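cron nightly-structures :: item 1 of 1
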Amino acid sequence: MRIDPAAYVRQTIRNVPDWPKPGVTFRDITPVLQDPRSFRVLIDLFVYRYMGQKLDLIAGVDARGFIVGSVLAYELNLGFVPVRKQGKLPFKTVAEEYSLEYGNATVEMHMDSVRPGQRVLLIDDLIATGGTLMAATRLLQRLGANVIEAAAIIDLPELGGSQTIEATGLPVYTVCSFNESDR
């Protein structure tokens, strides 16, 4: 019997009701990372998608984007660039503020993270409103990078983030999606 890899990963994601606030269902990827088979299937999905593409770097968004992004960079023999929350990087940085579901935040990158013209895949664990990935994209573009796609494990389509990102012309890839009614 053949198992759909994306469905396999999706069924491993834990739903945590009423976190971080009542009425919100948190989609927790920790069980995927804890289970060697699920983690391998997840990484393989990304590897198969990107192994034939000409990429120079993987940029991962703080913090869960670091996990998937760094493993993917290793598997594809590419460098990895962290997009961090404000105040976490020790060298000269560029910053971008953005809005998220519960307020505002800022992400930063080292000024020398990318070179002009480099082809970068941007990755995070989840797309909600799209604010974090949009801010990271703007940072990469300010440094001269060509962001070829925004990727994530989970899409929350009801929050409109993927559509917001795609409306800018940046392609989006996600392994699976959850609606609020999916428990």
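cron nightly-structures :: done
The helical segments are 5-12, 30-34, 36-50, 64-76, 131-142, 161-167.
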